[in-house]
Amino acid sequence: MHRFFFAFGSGARSCIGRNISWMEMSKLIPTLFMRYDLTLADANAELTEKCWWFVIQKGLYVNVRRRQETKEVPRRAWFD
Question: Mind listing the pLDDT tens digit for each residue in 48-69?
Answer without folding.
Answer: 999 887 888 899 899 999 998 7
